Amino acid sequence: MSKDHADYLTEEQIGAEVAAFGKNLDAEYAEQSRDRDAYFTDPANAGEIAAMFARMEIVEAMYKARREAGLTQQQIADKLGTNRTYIAALERGRKNITFATLAKYAAACGKKVALL
Fold first, then answer.
1. CA-CA distance, 92 to 59, in Å (whole number)?
2. Which of 2, 89, 101, 108 allows an S-S link to 79, with CB 3.0 to 4.6 Å?
C-alpha cells in the first residue's frame, strides 16, 4: 500500500508547505490587485468601464424586478419562450440583450422599460 505524501512529512514540514503556499497566493493576489487597479485608473479605459457599470445596472434591475414579481428564472423563460439557462446568463450579464427582449422581460415582471 502506498503512503500518502503527508505520511512522509512532519507536522512542521506540513506547516511550512502550507505557509509557503499561502505566501504564493498572497503574492499572486497582490499582483492581480495591482493589475486590476491599474486597469480601472487608466483614463484610456474610462469608456469601457462606464459601459460595464451601465450594463451592471440593467442586470441588477432585471434581477430585482423578477424577484419583486415573485417569479423564478424558469417562469420568466416560459413567458419569453426561451430556456432558464438563457435567463440566468442574461441576469449575470453573460449575454447581450436586445431592447425588445428587455421590454418583454420587464413586461413579464409587470414592469415597463424607461430610459432616462
1. 7
2. 108
Q: Which DSSP string corresponds to 11-67? A: HHHHHHHHHHHHHHHHHHHHHHHHHHHHHHH-GGGHHHHHHHHHHHHHHHHHHHHHH
Per residue in 4-42, pLDDT tens? 655 677 888 888 888 887 777 778 888 888 888 999 999
Distances (CA, A) of 31 to 9, 21, 66: 31, 16, 38
pTM for the complete prediction?
A: 0.66
pLDDT digits (tens, 9 = 90+) for 95-107: 999 999 999 999 9
CA distance 52 to 74: 26
The span from the CA of 62 to the CA of 104, in Å, is 11
The grid cell for 116 is: 432616462
Neighbours of 38 (CB within 10 A): 10
Residue 6 is classified by DSSP as G
